[in-house]
Design a protein that fits this description.
This protein is an alpha+beta fold. The chain has two helices and three strands. The mean pLDDT is about 75.
Amino acid sequence: MALFDARGIDHVGIRYRDLPRAVAWFRDVLGLPIEHEARTMAVAALRAAGVPLRPVGPNLGFEDPEGTVFHFMSARVG
């Protein structure tokens, strides 16, 4: 028995070295629609929206209106 009734996937976050190539593959080969693309980095978008960032360990983070902390980790090279 399922824990909840799933009707679809809201979003999936996957890190790629060549994002345009990956997007083209999902769109052109699998036929998945691309409903949203952001051309700026999340930290820049948050700053532009006036969301205050704070250190969370070695990373930057922010809190949502309920106090949940989100943080961003740099991509590891190599």
